[in-house]
């Protein structure tokens, strides 16, 4: 203790010495230099791989996307004013690419009213590369983390509240196109709002964030990330809740109910009428001869 | 044939026979009869005869599903609270807990999730309603296609049409009650329809809703209409419908032994009581199975009504679908502005004009037909649809109109399920709604007429045996054999159509005949309806055909075995005495 005090005392005595400033400067440079030496190689590596990823993404983009979206993602207009083969991708962000390519919607088989969900054309690495490339074209929404759309870290009570709040947001903003059950609905000229059954939470979040195709864009200012999470929680709860009422008939509303009333109800009962009328009732088994 | 002599009297006693002591059931019956006079009423009705044909039981589906509606409806009223008072839901359904809603919605959720058997009853009630109206329509079609609406049943036809209208209104008021998002959208639409009425529209809307939409009165008002007013009228009309059925007696298909003066069939007791009673349980069973297994109107998924919300697939129940379809396909720009007031033809035509017009046309059908034919006779024997080609074609064309409008009401569902464009469906329907009925009329009428020709072929040349014979010259021909007498009688048991012609425009003094203009129209319609029809063969034609057939048979008389072709089929003439008829 005394030794320490003595050393501190001695250092303290030299702190105003002529070489003290130099020594501190040297020490500082040494520490920051060693820290740089310790961390800089890794940083240089990730930078290199990101550039590589973007380059790989660009390659894939040129091969699979540029025909409609242009060689630099600037979009390709058609001869008709206001129409385009593919829109500009500047500023759509990685989230849009992750949604469109990750669900197989892009690349489209052919230009049309609807880009339907289909088997995914790229593996996860390639999707990430494409997303990185498109994100490099201009700032846009990033791919959300699981924490953004998961309600696992909420308490039981908060979860229930989130679900019922999400249900009301869903009914206000989504059911007009996607139907009360998330079964989907018709859009003009052959387009449609797809079903939400079995869609991964990440993609629902990204769809709200980026507004793919005819869907409006629910930006974070419009529908906060928590509200988006609540909608996803509601949809998840619908899938988890058993169908109390039995077979849902596709969850399409009164049209399919009418179909079943006619086919099963009236069809079955007319069948029963035919059966009853074709069987004559006998009151006695044996014939009476008189 | 031996005679059973056991029932013949065996004694010549002179004292009066006394009845043996009645059993417990018999004494109870006499007790009731002494006080209520039941025997006289029952004597006739228990032996009331119903003819046996499946198509005569279609109205029964409606009757029995109405009974199911009454039973399940009473159950629902025990818990339903028809109030638009605002409360926060705190029941068992997680996804809506803490959401504000009306008491009627909350009590509907309570019935669905917290009342034992409540959801089953709700679904049975709704399925029964869908089946009730569907079966009324099927029954109506049967009556129309067989000409059962002719004299004396025109008024019963009108009652039936009113039942259909009331059933539809009853359905609408019923599915509006839970105050969920879907039904609220429907009530909102109804409010719009009322307001589309020129001049009186907004007043009518304010009157119905007790102020501006939605207000707080509509659910209680619809409730009392749904559980008291319309069911009361429905019950009264159903009673009248059935009383007239008893009074007129049932119609029957023509056949040997069946005339305009009798009814051939089975008596109420024991046969038809068993059949109809059994059918009730079948209707009940089908509805119960549907209510138990198939979801209908899942209000908890719609959530409470909120004018800012709407859902894809917002359709009314099926019976309101066809005006909705007309509304969906009418061009939106059909409006005119008079003195600054907008007349919305695009709402008035599909909702306020065409559906009531269709109902009036439907109700007038028997009267129009009666006027054209001038037929004042009672008709209890039915016509096969083919034997009234124009009537059948008119009904089919009305059905086609209905069906197309109905399909247009589900245009969005058709679009997503059949991968079509909703716009193309709309354009197609706009044309098809006019061309379809015309095409259907023409095809049906030609079809009926060729079926009539086919009947005449069978009468005159017999049926096709499917047996090919080769003549000595090597010519191949299919044998035709005469049809049996029962079939021949049935095929010819119809009247010849008479085309009405105007006797003369002016009489000998040059004075125009009264009503000659309408008579001319009548003559033209009569010729339009009947001049294309194929009439049954005359007696001379039939005799000539029989003679021809006998001649054919004679040619084969010298052979050692009959070659009439019957050796190959099941139509060999049988001796009724030694071969028993097939026992059912």
Characteristics:
heterodimer, A: 290 residues, mainly alpha, Cytochrome Bc1 Complex, Chain D, domain 2, two-stranded antiparallel ribbon, 4 strands, 56% helix, B: 584 residues, Cytochrome Bc1 Complex, Chain C, 19 helices, disordered C terminus
Q: What this model shows, in words?
A:
- The complex is a heterodimer of chains A (290) and B (584).
- With 290 residues, chain A is mainly α.
- Among the domains of chain A are: 48-143, Orthogonal Bundle (Cytochrome Bc1 Complex, Chain D, domain 2), CATH 1.10.760; 144-243, Orthogonal Bundle (Cytochrome Bc1 Complex, Chain D, domain 2).
- Chain A has helices at 2-14, 20-64, 66-69, 93-102, 124-137, 146-149, 156-173, 175-178, 201-210, 225-240, 254-278, and strands at residues 76-77, 84-86, 185-186, 192-193.
- In chain A, strand 3 (185-186) and strand 4 form a beta hairpin.
- The model of chain A has no long low-confidence stretch (mean pLDDT 86).
- Chain B has a domain at 52-325: Cytochrome Bc1 Complex, Chain C, CATH 1.20.810.10.
- Chain B has helices at residues 24-36, 38-46, 58-77, 103-113, 118-145, 154-176, 181-195, 201-209, 218-248, 268-293, 299-302, 321-329, 345-373, 389-409, 411-417, 422-461, 485-492, 516-530, 539-555; strands spanning 49-50, 86-88, 100-102, 266-267, 335-338, 341-344, 463-470, 476-481.
- In chain B, strand 5 and strand 6 form a beta hairpin.
- In chain B, helix 5 packs antiparallel against helix 6, helix 12 (321-329) crosses helix 13 and helix 14 (389-409) runs antiparallel to helix 16.
- Mean pLDDT of chain B is 89; it is low at 574-584.
- Chains A and B meet through helix 7, helix 8, strand 3, strand 4 and helix 10 of A and helix 3, helix 5, helix 10, helix 15 and helix 16 of B.
